């Protein structure tokens, strides 16, 4: 597929939400896999993460999804589709330090609206969903690697190993070390 340049003119249009270039190009953000019209009022992306498209179908072919705020395809993005975007964003970015504000900004919404919609559709908050992804990832590392607990908590996106151990015990009833001996014992014993 042809690669289009992020020219100064295009970049200016993105950061000033200029609607005069709407229809002329679209831009995707690689960290979120969401694409927008130049005029979208979402927070300006990091320049390094921007990819330019000439058509909606180019963006979709590469797995980018339309932004809920500016709906670049001209069709309103349904809540179902938006939830899929948020979930895949969280699965891709769980290792980063994330807050509700960051998630909302990256998924092009207000924190309040994101929290309310996610909870209504998924029956849990986005942060609970995120903790579950982190927990499952940590479980796999405990099972498949010899990494230390501290290392695993960091790699899984937990803010500290103390928090990781507390959360792990709360969710599973056992400590990470107990979990590790148990699964490794099941394999070798
Ligand atoms: Zn947008």
UniProtKB/TrEMBL annotation:
Gene Ontology BP term (one): methylation
This protein's UniProt keywords: Activator, DNA damage, DNA repair, DNA-binding, Metal-binding, Methyltransferase, Transcription, Transcription regulation, Transferase, Zinc
One of the record's GO molecular function terms: methyltransferase activity
Domain of life of the organism encoding this protein: Bacteria
SMART domains registered for this protein in UniProt: HTH_ARAC
Every HTH araC/xylS-type domain range: 84-182
PROSITE patterns listed in its UniProt record: HTH_ARAC_FAMILY_1, HTH_ARAC_FAMILY_2
rRNA-binding in keyword set: no
InterPro entries: Ada-like_dom_sf, Ada_DNA_repair_Zn-bd, Homeodomain-like_sf, HTH_AraC, HTH_AraC-typ_CS, Me-P-triester_DNA_alkyl-Trfase, Tscrpt_reg_AraC-type_HTH
Cofactor requirement: Zn(2+)
Protein name: Putative ada regulatory protein
Organism listed in the record: Companilactobacillus tucceti DSM 20183
